[in-house]
Amino acid sequence: MPDIVDRPRQEHTSRYYWEREHQPGEKFVPYFWLEFTSQVMIFFLFMAVIGGVALLWPNGLGARANALVTPPGTKPEWYYLALYQLLKVVPEVWGIVVSGVLVVLALALPFVDRSPVRNPLKKPVTTTIALLIIALAIVFTIWGAMS
Fold it and tell me: Which terminal residue of the chain, N or C, has fewer Cβ atoms less than 10 Å from its own Cβ?
């Protein structure tokens, strides 16, 4: 935000000094490329300093983690509890496939049912699928929170 607010002042200043230092009728060349190249140089200098510090004093890594074993007492945030419980109930690969299919189905459902009728009571198949997905998500979330 400060750059957006300060940009008119920068334009005025660069035009003012251009007009003071050059003859009338000379084409105005914006200050952008000088500013851009200096900012790029500062960025690369900063990255070189950070990279040098990381190379000279590397941080040691801890023990290698096993992604398939969750430490005891660890639970995800509430919005991941349904997926977490599903992965505990079914085998790992099937849990990932089922959750992916449910998400794709929930996202594709409005596009598949192209009926001009807007009332959900007149679309029993679509309404049943949507309510089933919502009910499963709620049940698995509560089950994951309780276990």
Answer: N
To which residue do tokens 């849990």 refer?
Answer: 95
What is the Cα–Cα distance from 147 to 136, expressed in whole angstroms? 16
State the Cα–Cα distance between residues 1 and 124, nearest whole angstrom.
50
Burial class for 71, CB neighbours closer than 10 Å (0-12, 13-18, 19+): exposed
The CA distance from 114 to 118, in Å, is 10
Is there a domain that residue 138 lies in? yes
Whole-number Å distance between alpha carbons of 138 and 126: 18
| Same domain, yes or no: 82 and 142 | yes
Give the global pTM: 0.50
